[in-house]
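In the current project phase, our protein records have gained a structure token line. A sample record follows, to show the layout:
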Amino acid sequence: MVDDKALRAWFATEVLPFERELMHFIARHSRQSEEVIDVRQESYERALKGARGGLPRSARRYVLTIARNVLIDRARRERVVSFDHIADLENIVAEADRFSPDHHLEARDELRRAMAGLEQLPPRCREVVRLRRVEGLSIRETAAGLGVSEHTVERQLTLGLRALVDYMHGGEGRIDRTGRGRPKHRKVER
């Protein structure tokens, strides 16, 4: 346990010299410029509470880590609140739209498009996607049923799903074996 006098001395000589760097760090990673001072103060408060149990070796790293954690905590709190509100609104709208004729037409169009995209896949890839995503088999069951390795199933599933997503977003739905990235998506015109 560190006494108050040693704690104050540590804070004045080890922490305060990094205040400018700390402010830049917070400003660079903060979503709102007006919260920089609040985050700094909360970081100092946490640093003092934590250092009471024992002074850290690197005050700079310690305070920057605390500031990062404060920013993460604040971002999480903001997300939790906004997700709750959005989830409630989405549920209300989704419930109202669920029985509309437009919803049924869109669902049928998407199903037709998915089936067409699935038919474009190479036979083995199509069978892997069908067994895993439509029949719900595990990777091991799929591999055993097709007589291939589990690695092959995982690779074929990845390639097939990427091609299918590309097709669903208006692309050609081709298998990209280069591994250079995902296929480009075009916006679907309705």
Remarks:
- The two ends are 67 Å apart (CA to CA).
- The first helix runs from residue 4 to 15.
